Amino acid sequence: MSVRIRITKGKIIFSLLILLIGLLFIWNPVRTPIYWVSLDGKTLKFRVDLREASKVPVYPSEDEVKNFLMSPLVENITIYYIAGSGEENSRAAVEVFELTYKLSVTFSRRFGYLPNFEVVNITSFEGINGTVENPGIAIVDPVRSNETSVRLVDGVIFIAGNYSESSEEKMKNLDLATARLIITAIGVKY
Known about the structure:
By secondary structure, the protein is of the alpha/beta class. It has one domain (36-186): Chitobiase, domain 2 (2-Layer Sandwich). Helix content is 41%, strand content 21%. A 6-stranded mixed beta sheet has the order 3-7-8-6-4-5. The protein has a two-stranded antiparallel sheet with strand order 1-2.
């Protein structure tokens, strides 16, 4: 008894298509979003995809920002923001909570202590500065920004979200910059 296998053009095309799709997944895997990071057994959850946040540029470099902020010499961290509309103030409040909570956990896990946090409402970003013992973080609302970035200038780390007409997009852009600063401080790379 002999078995005959009949191969048609349709079967060949179907097989090649399945092979091609398989190769595409191997060379370009679908990247699932990441919304959390584990820091010495403590899970920190984020509202934005950390892979997307990792694309936010950091100036002058990730290492300089990380080394400046995550120093055992830090005693106080001053967070600056410019008060504005209710929507702007709400965005600032959310980012202040994210920064104080996640940086507190990071300092506690890394150095065994918590720095003091001070939140200061200012009228202008001009003239603010920080030191190794008292770094500053300035939250630049999308209403005042033309880029989404993390930038260290004169001892102050500016986190800025790009302007958008959409309230949700403004919040997302600022969240991405905040998440970028936090994962840079922790030392996570995606």
